[in-house]
């Protein structure tokens, strides 16, 4: 598979009959595919003749990953504001469970365990892996990326500051908004990211500001764990992360991909 080819927007959804499909986005319609994710990454796009409206389906997370891999402190400004180390020599790594994922327009639920209500957003570019890889060379790393999407690494900052590791503060249900779709043919190394909280811009950055390159991150993590098709790699957040409260609306916009919007309750 060679990535960064033709640009296509691929969405995953559930129809009124509770059936899950992938589809190609064309304006306000979706061209329904009978292809599985494995078939799509092999460019076996089988259009089954059905067109559906976005208004008639439930948009899901764009993939159902075996794992959600997260890289922290890849932007110096965010590392400094959250007590981390700027300009890391190697990645700061953590995982989120698949149960943390929530789709576009879904709810972020603030947990009672975060007693100071310091639950913060972190808008990020996420990579979707298209083929199995282990010990990937850095120069080949982007060949393993099928497409890009948007991720919000919701974090209970009070818990990550006191726990010896980040699993609890990062792993609550709904702490991983992902979507609304995946876009192929996009270079992830130079994308603008903007996060708004109730229409106020709180984060504004670009993946070209990362202290560790995306090809390096892919290669580095593949020395530890095998990457599988559909895995999500969240590449880290620029500075500006701040607390959310019930009733807030948080939106992450990424150039060439779209907008991920979620509601806090």
List the helices and strands and how they pair.
Layout: E1 9-14, E2 20-26, E3 29-33, H1 37-41, E4 47-53, E5 58-59, E6 68-72, H2 76-81, E7 92-96, E8 101-102, E9 107-108, E10 119-120, E11 123-129, E12 145-152, E13 155-156, H3 157-162, H4 167-171, E14 176-183, E15 192-197, E16 200-206, H5 214-222, E17 232-234, E18 249-254, E19 258-264
| H/E series | EEEHEEEHEEEEEEEHHEEEHEEE
Largest sheet: 12 strands, mixed
Query: At the fourth CATH level, what is the homologous superfamily of the largest domain?
Result: Fumarylacetoacetase-like, C-terminal domain
Structural class: mainly beta
Domain tally: 2
Spans of at least 5 consecutive residues whose pLDDT stays below 50 are none
From the 3D structure, determine the CATH topology of the largest domain. Answer: Fumarylacetoacetate hydrolase, domain 2
Give a structural overview.
The chain has helices at 37-41, 76-81, 157-162, 167-171, 214-222, and strands at 9-14, 20-26, 29-33, 47-53, 58-59, 68-72, 92-96, 101-102, 107-108, 119-120, 123-129, 145-152, 155-156, 176-183, 192-197, 200-206, 232-234, 249-254, 258-264. The mean pLDDT is 94. The chain has 265 residues and is mainly beta. It starts with 8 loop residues before the first strand and ends with a strand. The chain is globular, with a radius of gyration of 18 Å. The strands form three sheets. Strands 1, 2, 3, 4, 5, 6, 7, 8, 11, 12, 14 and 17 form a twelve-stranded mixed β-sheet that branches. A five-stranded mixed β-sheet has the order 9-19-18-15-16, with no helix packed on it. Strands 10-13 form a two-stranded antiparallel sheet. It has two domains: 9-59, SH3 type barrels; 68-264, Fumarylacetoacetase-like, C-terminal domain (Fumarylacetoacetate hydrolase, domain 2). A hairpin with a 3-residue loop joins strand 18 and strand 19.
């Amino acid at each position: 598979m060679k990535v960064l080819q033709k640009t296509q927007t691929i969405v995953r959804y559930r129809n009124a009959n509770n059936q899950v499909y992938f589809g190609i986005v064309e304006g306000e319609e979706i061209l329904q595919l009978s292809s599985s994710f494995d078939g799509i990454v092999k460019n076996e796009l089988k259009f089954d003749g059905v067109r559906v409206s976005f208004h008639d389906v439930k948009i899901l997370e764009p993939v159902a990953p075996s794992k959600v891999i997260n890289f922290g402190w890849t932007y110096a400004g965010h590392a400094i504001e959250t007590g981390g180390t700027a300009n890391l020599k190697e990645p700061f790594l953590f995982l989120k469970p698949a149960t943390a994922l929530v789709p576009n327009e879904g709810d972020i639920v603030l947990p009672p365990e975060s007693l100071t209500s310091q639950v913060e957003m972190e808008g990020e570019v996420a990579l979707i892996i298209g083929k199995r890889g282990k010990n990937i060379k850095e120069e080949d790393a982007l060949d393993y990326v099928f497409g890009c999407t948007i991720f919000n690494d919701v974090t209970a900052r009070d818990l990550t500051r006191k726990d010896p590791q980040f699993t609890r503060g990062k792993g609550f249900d709904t702490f991983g908004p992902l979507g609304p779709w995946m876009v192929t043919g996009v270079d992830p190394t130079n994308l603008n990211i903007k996060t708004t909280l109730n229409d106020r811009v709180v984060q504004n950055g670009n993946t070209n500001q990362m202290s560790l390159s995306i090809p390096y991150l892919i290669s580095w993590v593949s020395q530890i764990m095998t990457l599988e098709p559909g895995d999500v790699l969240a590449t880290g957040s620029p500075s500006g992360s701040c607390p959310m409260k019930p009733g807030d609306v948080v939106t992450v916009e990424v150039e060439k991909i779209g907008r991920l919007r979620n509601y806090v309750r």
